[in-house]
Structure formats: C-alpha cells, structure tokens
Amino acid sequence: MPQTMLVRATHGPGLYEITEEIETFVGAAGTDVGLLTVFVRHTSCSLLIQENADPDVRRDLDAFFRRLVPPADDPSMSWIVHTTEGPDDMPAHIKAALTQTSLGIPVTGGRMALGTWQGIFLFEHRQRPHRREIVLHLGP
C-alpha cells in the first residue's frame, strides 16, 4: 500500500492548499479504486476540505476562527491555564479540536473523488512558522 510523508512549511495562521501535492501522490500510486487517508502529525494545526476557487473563502474562514477563539491574552480567554508556549498555543489546540487532523477521501479512476470546487488545506493555527508533516496513505 502506497504511503508517503508530505512536509509543508507554514509562515503563520491561514489555510495552505495542498491538493496538488496530494494529487501527484495519488497519480503516482497507480491505484484505480481505494481510500486515501490524509493525516497531520500535529496538535496545533488541522486539515480541511474546502472551496478552492475563491480566496475570500479562506480569508473568511480564518477570520471566523480568529474571532471564535482569540489569543489567550485576549480578556475573553482569561480562563485558559495552558500558556507555556505563548498566547496562540492553547487557542491553536482548541481550533484543531474543532476541526480535524485526518481526512478520508475516496479514490475513483485513479483520482481523488473531490467535487469541482473542493481542495484540501492544511489549516495552520500558530503565529510563528512551522514545518508540518502530513502522512498520505492509499489503501484498498
């Protein structure tokens, strides 16, 4: 069963599209029908399948999550205890808990069965740059 690790550098919060890299992996695997698992090996970022045609969707989603879970130094977040790694760390964990760290995507005809406007995104929740590892596994 084909498996690989995709490494993606981030430079702060936002949605980073990784669809093309994943399509390359699926195409090279030569599997006609299967299930692709995409798994991010971190607790302060997540994965999303979302519209990839209009960049305003990415901006609005990022703005929504910033409003929903502001940094720990915001007065509304005074209840947070875990602040050792900075004011963005615990909010990043909360955002990751509200989204997902794993996706399952059917593969049909050797391609991901994504809809016309769907793309796969790494959703970075931390302020500083990170090196994120994403495991891709294609099974029967």
Q: How many structural domains in the coordinates?
A: 1
Listing every helix as H and every strand as E from the N terminus to the C terminus, the arrangement reads EEHEEHHEEEE
Q: Which bin fits the share of residues in helices?
A: 25-40%
Uncertain segments: none
Return the CATH topology. Jelly Rolls
Strand percent estimate: 35-45%
Largest beta sheet: strand ordering: 1-8-3-5-6
- Biggest sheet layout: 5 strands, antiparallel
Shape type: elongated
What's the CATH first level? Mainly Beta
Average pLDDT value? 96
Structural class: alpha+beta
- CATH architecture term: Sandwich
* CATH superfamily grouping: YjbQ-like
Topology overview:
Blueprint: E1 3-10, E2 14-17, H1 19-29, E3 34-40, E4 45-51, H2 55-68, H3 89-98, E5 102-108, E6 111-112, E7 118-124, E8 130-139
Antiparallel strand pairs: 1-8, 2-7, 3-5, 3-8, 4-7, 5-6
How would you explain this protein's 3D organization?
The chain has 140 residues and is α+β, with helices and mostly antiparallel strands. It has a single domain (3-139), classed as Jelly Rolls, CATH 2.60.120.460. It has helices at 19-29, 55-68, 89-98; strands at 3-10, 14-17, 34-40, 45-51, 102-108, 111-112, 118-124, 130-139. The protein has a 5-stranded antiparallel sheet, covered by helices on one side. It has a 3-stranded antiparallel sheet with strand order 2-7-4, sandwiched between helices. It starts with a strand and ends with a strand.
Features:
140 residues, alpha+beta, Jelly Rolls, 5-stranded antiparallel β-sheet, 3-stranded antiparallel β-sheet, elongated
